[in-house]
Each structure stands twice: as C-alpha cells, then as structure tokens.
Amino acid sequence: MVCAAINLFVLCVVSAQPQAIPDKVKPAAYPFAPSRVKLLDSPFKVAQEADKKYLLSLEPERFLSWFRKNAGLEPKAQNYGGWENQQLAGHSLGHYLTACATMFQSTGDTRLKDKVDTIVAGLKECQDKRGDGYIAALPGAETLWATIKANGQLRGRGSHINGYWAPWYTLHKQYAGLLDAYTLCGNKMALEVCKKFADWAIDETSNLTPENWQNMLDGEFGGMAESLADLYGLTGERKYLDLANKFHHSAVMDPLEKGERKLAGLHGNTQIPKAIGAAREYELTGEVRFRKIAKNFWDQVIEDHTYVIGGNTSGEIFGPPKQLSNRLTDNACETCNTYNMLKLTRHLFTWSPSGKLGDYTERALLNHILASQNPETGMMCYYVSMQPGGRKAFSSPTNDFWCCVGTGMENHARYSDSLYFHNGNKLWVNLFIPSMLDWKEQGVQVKQQSAVDGSRTTLTFTCQKPVRADVLVRIPAWSAIKPEVRVQGELTNYRTREGFAVLDGGMIKTGLKIEVRFFPTLRIEPTPDDPKKAAICFGPLVLAGVWDSGTSQPGSQSPVPAMVTSGKPLSQWIVGDPSDPGTFRTTGVGQPVDVKLMPFYRVVNQRYSVYWDLLSEADYAKREADRKAEAERLAELDSRSIDQVRTGFQNSERTHNLQSDRSSTGDFNGRRYRHADGWFSYELKVDPDGPNELMLTFWGSDGGRAFDVLIDDKVLDTVRLRGEKVNAFFDKVWRLDPSTTKGKSKVTVKLLAHQGSIAGGLFGVRMVRSKVD
C-alpha cells in the first residue's frame, strides 16, 4: 500500500493519517523509505558514518538557544557560531532535524531520534510561551514581520527582504525539519507544532496584496511552497495549499512555464526550491503548469549551466547559457544547489523513470556530494572549486554553519535516496552503490555489490517465496558499449526502455544472481563553449589532476599545468596505474609538469584541477608569451604603484579601512571582487606632490551597471558597464587633478551605485604615479 501524499523523500515512512489526502498524480515509480536501504562498505558508507559521528557530536540545546531567547525563555546553552550568530540564525536547526531523522531511518541509531525528540519538545515549549504559533531564532526580525502584517512596503533583492537576510528561507528549514521529524521519526508533536507555525504564517501574510506578495518574493524564500504543500498533503487542510500557491514567484515561474530561457543572472539556489515546490504542487493537484515549470527548469539547468561534477553556478549566479569556460572559479558549484537539484531529479524520476535522470543523480552524488566532504572529519564544502589549481575549503565543527553545512548534514544521510525504485512487480536499480534492499512488498531482499569505477555490479536475491518480477538496471551513458548481463552465469539478452536494461517476467528466488558488466573508458568532456578547455573522466568518475606545486601553502600561485596534446587522442598521453584502479598519469604532455589523475572524490587537501587547457605547441607558446608580457606589465605597474587594494581579501580591505552599505564579495574567473547595490569605499595613499592616477579593474562582460566613482565624496566620474569588452578584464584609469591630492597623504575612493543598479564588480584598485610625459 502506497502512503498518501507527503514529500517523496519520506513516502511511506508514516502510515497515512485519516485526514491525509492522496496525490492526484499517481507515480510511475515509487521510492523506498530510507529504512529499507542499508549501505554496505564503500566510500559512501564511510561518508555516512563520518556524518553520523558529526551529527551525534552536536548539541540540541545549542541549536535551541536563539529560539528560547526570542520566546522569552532562558537559554540552556550558548548558541553556535558562524551563520547561527547572524540573521540566518535557526536555519541549521531545521537542517539538523531532517539530517538526524533521515540518518535514524538510514542507520537505525536511536540516539539520533532522541535528538529529534529533544528539539521538537524545545520548539513546542517556545511556541507555547509565545502563544501565537511563531517559532524562530531570527534576531531582530520583528520590524520586518510588522511590516508584512501591515501590508507595508516590501522590497526583495537578492537574498534579502527589506534588508533582512532570507527570513522565509530560514523558516522553511524549520517547517521541513518538523515535517521530517513527524514522517521519519513518528513524532506527532512535530506535526502539531508545524500546523500552528503555518497558521501563524497564514495570519501574518493575510493582509498582503498580490503586488506586495510579488515584491516580497523578489527576495530569497527557500522551499516554503514545498513544505506548505507537504503539510496540505498530510492534513488535507486546503488553507496550507492556498498559502503554498501564494509563494509563486511570477517573474521566474511564468517564463519557465513557457519554456523561456531566462535563468542567466539569477541566484541559483533561490530558484531551485521554487521548481521543487512546483513539482510537489503538481503531484498534489495534477495541474500541468506546475509540471512544465519543474521539467523546464531541470532541463535548462542541466543543459545550460552544469559543470562536469554535476554542480552549477559561479558566485552563486547562473551565467549565460552554455558558457562555462570563463566561469571556472573558486566559488563555483555551491553544494546546496546540487542537494536541491537531486531532490528535483527524484521528483521527475517518479513521474517518468529514465536513464538520463539516473545519469545525473550518479554524476552529482559521486563527483560533487561525495567530493564535498572531508571523510576524515566529516566537514563539508560550501563551494567546490572549479578554478584550475584550486583547493577544497572545509567547514569547522561549530563556527561556520553555512547553508551548505546544513544541506551537507543531510546529504550524507541520503545516499540511499534514489538508489532503488519500485511499482508493483517492477524494481528499478538506478544507482550502483553497495547496499542491502528490503523490498518488503514482494518479500524480497536484494544485496548489491559494485565497483566504484562503474565496471560491474552484482545483484543477489533472497526471497520468502519465488516471485515473478521485472528488474530494470540503468544503462549508464558513459558505458562505451552495451553492458553484458548474466543471470546465474549465463549471458542474457535483454530489451531496453528509457535507458534501462529490462529483465522482464523472470522468476526471482533465493540465490538468484544477476551480474552486469559495464565498459567504462577514458573520455574528454569539454566545456560547451570552448572545446580546448575540458575535464577528463573515466566511466562515472570525474578525474582531478594533482601535482607537486613546490609549496604546501594554500593559495599558491605556482603554474597550473596545461596539457600540450596537439590533438592527440587520450590513449597516447594517459596511462593507468595498475595498482590503483581509476587512477592515471599524463605522460609527456603536461607543461610544466605531468600530473596524477585520480577520482575527484578522493581529493581532500591537495591543490587540484578538474578542467584543463588542451593546447597545441603554438597555443602554448602564445600563452607563455602572453603570460610573460603580462608579468612585465605588472612589474612596471608595481614600480609606479603608491598603494593597492586586493579586493575581496579581508586583510587588505581592513588595512584600507573598508566602509560599505549593502556590499559583498565573491570569486570570478580566478579573481576576487567586491560589488554593492549601495556603496563601498577604501582609503588609499597618494603622492601629495602628484601626479596620481587611479586605476580600477572590471570584467568586460559585465553589463547593465551604473555607478559613480568619488574621491573624498566628490564625483570623479560615472561608470557605465555595458559588456563591451567581452570575456576580458580591463583597467579604467583616471589622471587626478593635482588639487585633488595636494597636501594629502591619502584619499577615500568610493563606488556608489545608481538607483536600482550595482557598483562593481571591482576586481582591483591601484593608486599609481603617472608616467613622465
């Protein structure tokens, strides 16, 4: 019996309540509850155990600290640091509830359920003390809620609403955590707390006009639509679906429904939960527009914005479609994005199982999610750098709590999430991860043993009694030739359907063994816009190159090797390491050195590259000449420099007395920048006797930005970036009037955004002595 409508991730964990309603859309394939799939020894099991250890080390009362303060109760412990000590306080508690509930289902460790029950009881205590249903850790949000309640003027921009950092996004984590506490741990109190909390949200937004709703939704609001839709499915109370529908951001969703490609320039992880919400609303209502939104979004992200490891965005922003070669940055592939894309993929798979969906799930899990954890410490990455010569930066246990720590806590509890699916007598084997499946509906257990390089998988069955069933095994897109399937050792013919090998109508009984041999090979995967910039893969594995850079210091600027292949096939310049399957080495093409190629998930502390420049001898000679010329230019510039700011670097900006309003930093194309929709300023030394020149560095493809440059609060010039210098950095230089600097040792340089625009991105600031005429 399939349970009534609840989030697909938790389908069938809790028996349907009398008031729950069934989905209008009947799935073509049902996922298994996490408790039905147990991981066996593999890198995934190592990651799961490391994550469980971390979850058990965390203290519920430290997550509850801000909630108790806001409810007028005395905290029982000090709150955690990092983002838990900022406006986003409380988001981690929601993620932690979901992570512990999921890990409890996946491992059966009751200590995790105890932590869930402790937090739910604490939240109920806070809710009862307030009396209005509201529970939140958000510090200083009262003014915002009062504005919303009164239908005051609202303005969402980026991740903020009226200048407050993603309040609905944070609340969504709590809604989701409470629902998972109910569906995965059977905590009935969690559902009652969630309902009262949602009733508060209904009342809080009851006066908002449609126009003001849309103004508010221009800011990040997470998966509110998804959780409210789930709550409707669990309770059958239409008011929750009505509120979910109000979290419909027309500016993004309407173009998606029409199939228009308008994601460029949007914040990635603000958009993905909108598509997940649409997917859930489609399942509950059957309204086809929601299916179109979800499917069109998935297609666009996968086809236009996805890196080889399965991640997306640079600086958290979707770039122009199919342009990745100049977006190989240190802040690419935000891990939250892939977490959410996997959730969306799972919805789509249940509607219409396909090998393409399974291929993405495999790619993202193996090469991004698994690669985003330090297996020794259990710590997580926010971004997973695609910058050549980059490094992974891992969180600390108690002083970061980034968004990707929250989703990271969940990620490694969810490896069984899309491993198997079923419907009646059909079993889909979607991923090749060593595991045990309890297919209770058919009285069948399946043991899967597989190789991480994708070369083979074996399914062994144990049955209460013989049953007739269809087994569908995904045929990976990376398999060079048609896989071989053996049943009880005998080579078997099979038909294919939607990317799966179909073994239909066979009798399954204890001892049945199905062996599948795949044929992984080395291959090049170029960026869509530059065939000379490419990653190297082997079967399902993305390979990262590591080398002895001559220094162990992070941020080392020693040369990143290029591959001077002159068009030769891979087989002529890569050799395998017979002692370490899945590991290779380049031979005679690496400049200045050859490199070791290893599965990316195994890279932890090394400097690495995933993407490579594949050059001819002439290409390499020109690049070296350009590099030498640039080094000479910078040396000449250094000789004339009076002062310079390394934008985006804390020590340099602090030294230059950074002041700002609504400003932030990021990485792009290997360089750090600062920008603002308000303003920012630095103090720079000058030569009081002059002449002085101010030099600012911008990215030539940035467009639609207007801002003033001021010296000591006097406008020097207005800059309008129109994208006229495509795919190149450029310097804009002003020779300062001597009166501007006469008798001064320093000046203040300010960038002030025009109304509705952005100042920057600014990639560098110099004050230099003018050349002698």
List keywords for this structure.
seven-stranded antiparallel β-sheet, alpha+beta, 19 helices, single chain
Strand and helix map with partners:
Elements: E1 30-31, E2 37-39, H1 43-57, H2 60-70, H3 91-107, H4 110-130, H5 142-149, E3 156-157, E4 160-161, E5 164-165, H6 167-185, H7 188-204, H8 210-217, H9 224-235, H10 238-246, H11 250-258, H12 268-285, H13 288-305, H14 335-351, H15 355-369, H16 403-411, E6 420-423, E7 426-429, E8 435-439, E9 444-450, E10 456-463, E11 467-474, E12 484-487, E13 490-491, E14 495-497, E15 500-508, E16 513-517, E17 522-527, E18 530-538, E19 541-546, E20 562-564, E21 574-576, E22 584-586, E23 590-591, E24 596-599, E25 608-609, E26 611-615, H17 617-640, E27 641-645, H18 650-655, E28 659-668, E29 671-685, E30 692-699, E31 703-711, E32 714-722, E33 729-735, H19 738-741, E34 746-753, E35 759-762, E36 764-769
Parallel strand pairs: 7-11, 20-26
Antiparallel strand pairs: 1-6, 2-8, 3-4, 4-5, 6-7, 8-9, 9-10, 10-16, 11-15, 12-13, 12-16, 14-15, 17-18, 18-19, 18-26, 19-24, 19-25, 20-23, 21-22, 22-24, 27-36, 28-29, 29-34, 29-35, 30-33, 30-36, 31-32, 31-34
Helix pairs in contact: 2-4, 3-4, 3-6, 3-16, 4-7, 6-7, 6-9, 9-10, 9-12, 11-13, 12-13, 12-14, 14-15
